[in-house]
Amino acid sequence: MTHQTMAHRTETLERTYAASPARVFRAWEDPEVRRIWGSPSDDVEIFNEAADFRVGGEDVQLCMVGGEAVARVVGRYLDIVPDARIVYSESISEGSVLLGVSLVSAEFIAAGGGTRLVLTLQTAALDGSDLLDGVVAGWSSALARLGGKMVAA
């Protein structure tokens, strides 16, 4: 058996939205709204198996392509300050294989008449895979969708 070295990365993504921090926060708080904008690409549809947006609560989402689950993402909320920040852990699995884990920190900062969102991703790919690039690409796509569809004024 060959040992695969873990790979780690911390990435910060910043976006500015023409909507209040409360409105942007609500797009994260509401699981049905988050399901729509939170997909890592236009080809992936999110199915919510569980949604419990509270400290200690757990979300379970399936990433579906062509009606088949390609990944399972389990998030556990560690800290929530309404309209200000969300911190949660996220595990990403494919079948029974755990691919990686992330600590996701989102800050909602009033900026003029809108919101500056600062998203920090601290990710460990457990098998040395390209998961690190995939996490950043997926979140970049989701944040673009958030701005274009969910919180546009």
Structure overview:
24% of the residues lie in helices and 50% in strands. It has 3 helices and 7 strands. The protein has a 7-stranded antiparallel β-sheet with strand order 1-7-6-5-4-3-2. Strand 4 and strand 5 form a beta hairpin. Helix 2 packs across helix 3. The longest helix is centred in the last third of the chain and has 20 residues. The protein is globular, with a radius of gyration of 15 Å.
Quick structural overview:
The protein is of the alpha+beta class and 153 residues long.
What is the CATH class of the domain at 8-41 and 79-150?
Alpha Beta
Q: Classify the secondary structure makeup into a structural class.
A: alpha+beta
Strand order of the largest sheet: 1-7-6-5-4-3-2
What is the CATH homologous superfamily assignment of the domain at 8-41 and 79-150? Answer: START domain
Instruction: Give me the CATH architecture of the domain at 8-41 and 79-150, please.
Output: 2-Layer Sandwich
What is the rounded Rg?
15 Å
> What is the general shape?
globular
CATH topology of the domain at 8-41 and 79-150: Alpha-D-Glucose-1,6-Bisphosphate, Chain A, domain 4
The helical percent reads: 10-25%
Biggest pleated-sheet summary: 7 strands, antiparallel
- The H-and-E topology, N to C, reads as EHHEEEEEEH
Proportion of residues in β-strands: over 45%
User: What is the count of DSSP helices, taking H or I runs of 4+ residues?
Assistant: 3
Oligomer: single chain
Mean pLDDT score, rounded?
91
